[in-house]
Amino acid sequence: MVEAKHWPQGARCVALLTVNLDADQFWLGMFPDSINRPKTLSMGEYGIKRGLDRVLRTFDEYNIKTTFFIPGKVAENYPAAIEKIISYQHELAVHGHSHTSMHLLTADQQLEEMEKAKEAIKKISGVVPIGFRAPEGELTLETLRLAKQCGFRYSSSLYGDDRPYRIFWDNGSMIEIPLHWELHDFPYFAFNYGPAFPIGQGRVASYYQVTKTYQREFDGYYQYGLAYVAQFTPQTIGSPGKIKILEDVLEYLTRQENLWIGTCGDLLDGMGLLQD
Asked: What is the DSSP letter of 93?
C-alpha cells in the first residue's frame, strides 16, 4: 500500500481524471444483439463524434494530461479519434478488445482480448500500452494475472483501497490503481430502453448533485492524502450540458494547493513503481 508521503513532488494528494473511450463497443461487447439496434449504437457513436472533442478541449483548457482506457476495436474502428488523443499527449491504455466482460471468457480468450487490444493501440500510436482496465462487468480470479503475463505494468480495475497497492501472484506482481463507482459518470447518466441499461431503468441523475458528489468525494481524498481516481465517458459527460460537470470538477480541483494531477503511468513512474 502506498503512503501519502510518497506522492510525486511531495504532493498532499493526487488526482487521476481518467477517460473510458468505449464508443459503440460498450454496447456491442455487453449486448451483442446491439448490432441490430441503431439507436443503441448511436449513443456510443455520439461519444466519438461529439463528446470526445469536448472532453479533450476541456482537459486542454486546464492543462491536464490523463489516461484514456480504450478497447482495441475502438482503436481499430476510429483511428482518427485515437490520433486526436495522441496529439494532446494523453496516455493510452487498454480497456479490453471487444469490451466483453472478462468473467464470460476462458483464460485463453481473456489473454487473446488483451493481446489484440495491446497490438491495436501500439499499431496506431507506436507506443506499447502499459495500463489495463477491465471492461465493465466482473473479472475472474485469473484476469489480472493474465494481464501481468501480457506485459501490463498496472491495472485500474478493482475497488480495494483509496491508494495504489500491489497484487502478488506466483508469476510476479502488479500495481493496482483502485476505483470507486461514485466517481464514475456512466452509472449516473447511462439510459437505454432496449436492452435495458441500467436494469430497472433508473432515471438520469441531477447534474448539480453529480457535480457535488465529485467535489465532496475529492474533499475527503484531499483531507486524508489519498489517490482520487475519477472516470469519465465521452458518450455521457460529453453532451453540451453535462460537459460543465467536468469543467466544474476540474476548476474545483485545480484551485487546491499541493495537488498532483496527471496520468496513471506518470503517477507510478513518479513514485518509482515502474522501475522493478
From this structure: E
How far is Cα 177 from Cα 244, in angstroms, rounded to an integer? Answer: 26
Rounded distance between C-alpha atoms, residue 120 and residue 191, angstroms: 29
Q: Quote the pLDDT of residue 3.
A: 52
Domain boundaries, the chain: 4-270
Q: Does the predicted TM-score (pTM) go above 0.85? A: yes
Helices (H) and strands (E) in the chain, counts: 12, 9
Choose among 32, 76, 74: nearest CA to 51. 74
> So what's the pLDDT on residue 38?
87
CA gap 191, 214 in Å, rounded: 20
Closest CA to 51 of 235, 249, 196: 235
User: Which amino acid makes up residue 70?
Assistant: I
**Residue 49 has what DSSP assignment?**
I
Nearest Cα neighbor of 165 from 268, 24, 75 is 268
Backbone phi, then psi, for 192, in 5-degree steps?
Answer: -155, 130
The CATH fold of domain 4-270: TIM Barrel (3.20.20)
Q: For the segment 152-169, what is each residue's pLDDT rounded down to a tens digit?
A: 999 999 999 999 999 988
Nearest CA among 121, 49, 124, 125 for reference residue 133: 121
